[in-house]
Amino acid sequence: MQEKKILFRADGNSEIGLGHLYRTFALIEMLKENYECRLVTRSDSELIIIPKTYKVDLVPVSIYINDEPKWLAENYNTSANLIIADGYAFDSNYQKEIKKLGYKLIYIDDLTTIENSADIVINHSLVVTREHFQAKPYTKFALGSHFAMLRPKFIEVAKKSKQPKKIKEAFISFGGVDFYDLTSKAVEALINIKSIHKIHVLIGAAYKHQNIFEIETRNSNVKIYRNLSEEEVIGVMQKCQLAIIPSSTISYEVCSVKMLIICGYFIDNQELIYKGLKKNNVIFPAGDYTLYNISKFEGIINEVINSDISTQNQMLKNQKKLFDGKQKQRFLNIINTLY
């Protein structure tokens, strides 16, 4: 019997963001004990964020996306390797070519706008159903928080209950790139609120703005973190009673740790998760972050601070309901149907 192998295909850099890579890392962490996992990424990806323990192969810059399926087949046995792809370059034509070559394919589709040929489609938004997707009759679906792409330690901490406390420390993270430098605006707003004693800021490897470092230099209550391990991220989050974040995968991580959350979106692929979080009453909805300045951030922060304790308590209870800790086993079960 052949060893079960998975090729994880994802890219990430300052132009496209790092979310595809981070979701891939979460899946690798869930599946690496049961499969031989190999990350395949383009050589212009932000390689520094890839855990050193991973097996990694680089797609040469000379290989264009239309030629990539053929390149994969020349380098990886089609019958021995399952492909899990996360990225908008892996469109309908790409998927058709991958399937023609004989690969089993899983695609993470967070936009629901293309015709899928994948054997399994993953989308962990809380509001999507099969009717949102164009897919083949054989396609299976892994949808909602039951298939949340969370790293294992977040799944474990999600099982614990938590009570709301007075807001003294805040957590801010706007992804690996933060195109609009929302980080600086949110931090400046928190600095203006005297009841906030400490501001913890997590930035990504592709974050290029300089203003936040000047803010940290001027304010002793601002601390910047970069390239933290899973355990370290959880440790920082657990110090905080408030988070200001986008509706990307980090919103699920913060819900796992549990705190009051200001959450909005700034790119299209965050809107479905945002709608689900809002519908399930686990966030203070901020809407479109591209409309935010320092004053607007101050307004919604004060709204959260002044919210009644029963509202806060219910939000934390709702967060606990999202994740039951069985995500890993569900992924194993559905992937095993392809072997």
From TrEMBL:
Top-rank taxon: Bacteria
Entry binding sites for substrate: R151, E253
Protein EC: 3.6.1.57
Active site: H20 (proton acceptor)
Record keywords, A-Z: Hydrolase
InterPro entries documented for this protein: PseG
An annotated Gene Ontology molecular function: hydrolase activity
NCBIfam families named in the record: PseG
Protein name per UniProt: UDP-2,4-diacetamido-2,4, 6-trideoxy-beta-L-altropyranose hydrolase
